[in-house]
Design goal:
Layout: H1 3-15, H2 18-25, H3 29-43, E1 48-50, E2 55-57, H4 59-88, E3 91-97, H5 100-116, E4 120-126, H6 134-137, E5 143-147, E6 155-164, E7 166-171, E8 192-195, H7 201-207, E9 220-224, H8 230-235, E10 241-244, H9 247-251, E11 256-260, E12 267-274, H10 280-293
Parallel strand pairs: 3-4, 3-5, 8-9
Antiparallel strand pairs: 1-2, 5-12, 6-12, 7-10, 7-11
Protein name: DNA-binding transcriptional regulator, LysR family
GO molecular function, one term: DNA-binding transcription factor activity
Family: Belongs to the LysR transcriptional regulatory family.
């Protein structure tokens, strides 16, 4: 039964008059009659008793009305809320990213979002890794597709968008490049490149650990501000970097090799926003990011 047909049935159940029902719904009385007859054929019994003077619900019609009305009202309330949110989604929404797959997702979402909400424009920009949370905290961004975990006051970690197996990006001449796989213990054998600045402790430990699980010190290599610097530093033989496995599809080039890890947790990337303010436009964009990412491990 279509939603419009349900509306016709419930309106007639309230008005108990074909003419008033048609006038209220801006349709013809014959349309009302046709819909009711179709519904009665579908259920196999009369829903209304009709005479030349009166229209009454049958016991079955009353039961159907009582069953349908709460669900119909809930649907209408949901539509009204969505319409209200859509009217409030205006202005500019600024979205940051740090990885190229985060950029791909942000731009795909921006195109789809502006098709739905013409009154809202999306501005997408790269966030430097030497100040990963600064733009968000200063109000220069509303959303940030970021490495996780963050675990800092004032910043909310939203849904995980990518859950990735790890790889170690190493110089092609390094002994580790000849292995089929590495462990976290191998990090003690190569300088690890890390971001400049003060990244959150939880994020730094996940992506640039200070020690291996057994307690060996992980040597430090040079630092970087933008992710695009990392492949060049590795190709120059200056160190290695823990990366998502999909980074090979974006950054493969002469002088570097991607060796998968066979231990350790997965890397996660999600969407962040300021805890103090999350507007309807931001909520709608986050929902779209989740839909487009699929929120599946190793999803493209």
């Amino acid at each position: 039964m279509e939603l419009r047909d349900i509306e016709i049935f419930l309106t007639l159940a309230e008005e108990l008059h074909f003419g008033r029902t048609a006038e209220r719904l801006h349709i013809t009385p014959s349309r009302v009659s046709h819909v009711i007859k179709t519904q009665e054929r579908r259920v196999g019994a009369a829903l209304f008793e009709r005479t030349s003077r009166t229209v009454r619900l049958t016991p079955l019609g009353r039961q159907l009305r009582d069953d349908l009305l709460p669900a119909y009202q809930q649907i209408q309330q949901a539509i009204d809320r969505a319409a209200a949110d859509a009217r409030s989604i205006t202005g500019t929404l600024r979205v940051g990213y740090t990885t190229p797959w985060g950029a791909d997702l942000a731009y795909r979402a921006a195109e789809a979002f502006q098709g739905r909400y013409a009154g809202c424009s999306i501005r997408v920009q790269e966030v430097p890794l030497d100040d990963p949370l600064g733009p968000l905290r200063r109000g220069e961004l509303e959303l940030h597709i970021s490495e996780l975990p963050v675990q800092v006051p004032g910043v909310t970690e939203g849904p995980v968008l990518f859950s990735e197996t790890r790889a170690l990006m190493v110089p092609s001449g390094h002994p580790l490049a000849r292995l089929d796989g590495v462990s976290l213990e191998h990090l003690a054998e190569v300088p690890l490149i890390g971001p400049r600045g003060a990244a959150p402790a939880a994020m730094r430990e996940a992506h640039v650990p200070a020690r291996t699980p057994s307690g060996l010190v992980v040597p430090r290599g040079p630092s970087y501000a933008l992710w695009s610097e990392v492949p060049a530093l590795v190709a120059a033989g200056l160190g290695a970097s823990i990366v998502a496995a999909r980074a090979e599809r974006y950054h493969d080039r002469p002088g570097i090799v991607f060796v998968p890890f066979h231990d350790g947790p997965r890397l996660e990337y999600g969407v962040l926003w300021r805890t103090a303010g999350h507007a309807p436009a931001g909520r709608a964009f986050v929902d779209l990011l989740v839909d487009l990412s699929g929120a599946h491990p190793d999803d493209d």
